[in-house]
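Sequence design from tokenized structure. All designs in this work follow the same two-part layout: the structure record, then the generated sequence. An example of the structure record is given first.
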């Protein structure tokens, strides 16, 4: 029994080192980052309801991921998209009251806005992306307000440093 007691601390030490190494190996990679993405809202929240929301859920997958972005112009907020992403944008149904979106970096909400249609007679005081009516160039622009920028109220988050940093790290900034 005395020999077992002498080996017991060594056994605990070996077990502790093994567990520590195993846990370290599991977390060494760290969480994967998504970077820049544009999501639709979970449950299709109306743009008119966005200011009243305490919580905005994201759709299960981004509408536009960082991989879909060919380039982003930080001065004009024009986003050149891949062919497939541009087709997705042209195919979403945008009512005249808009369709809410959420701009995220690593699934953290940076700002909210609405896709808007140029046939809408309703004004909007938030950030907008106009639904494209043409197929070329495959570019969308993140704008202030609808129908013109003077309708915008709030703080312009389009140049949020986290967004610009994520796009720069991904090599997507134009110019």
């Amino acid at each position: 029994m005395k020999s077992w007691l002498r080996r017991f601390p060594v056994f605990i030490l070996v077990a502790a080192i093994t567990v520590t190494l195993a846990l370290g190996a599991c977390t060494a990679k760290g969480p994967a980052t998504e970077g820049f993405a544009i999501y639709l809202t979970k449950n299709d929240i109306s743009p008119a309801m966005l200011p009243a929301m305490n919580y905005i859920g994201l759709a299960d997958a981004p509408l536009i991921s960082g991989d879909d972005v060919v380039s982003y112009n930080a001065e004009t907020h024009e986003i050149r998209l891949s062919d497939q992403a541009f087709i997705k944008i042209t195919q979403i149904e945008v009512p005249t009251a808009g369709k809410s979106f959420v701009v995220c970096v690593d699934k953290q909400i940076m700002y909210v806005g609405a896709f808007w249609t140029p046939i809408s007679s309703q004004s909007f005081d938030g950030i907008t992306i106009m639904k494209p009516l043409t197929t070329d160039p495959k570019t969308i622009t993140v704008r202030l307000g609808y129908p013109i920028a003077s309708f915008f109220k709030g703080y312009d988050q389009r140049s949020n440093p986290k967004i610009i940093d994520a796009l720069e790290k991904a090599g997507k900034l134009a110019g």
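The chain has two domains: 1-30, 36-169. We note this feature because it recurs in several other targets discussed in the main text.
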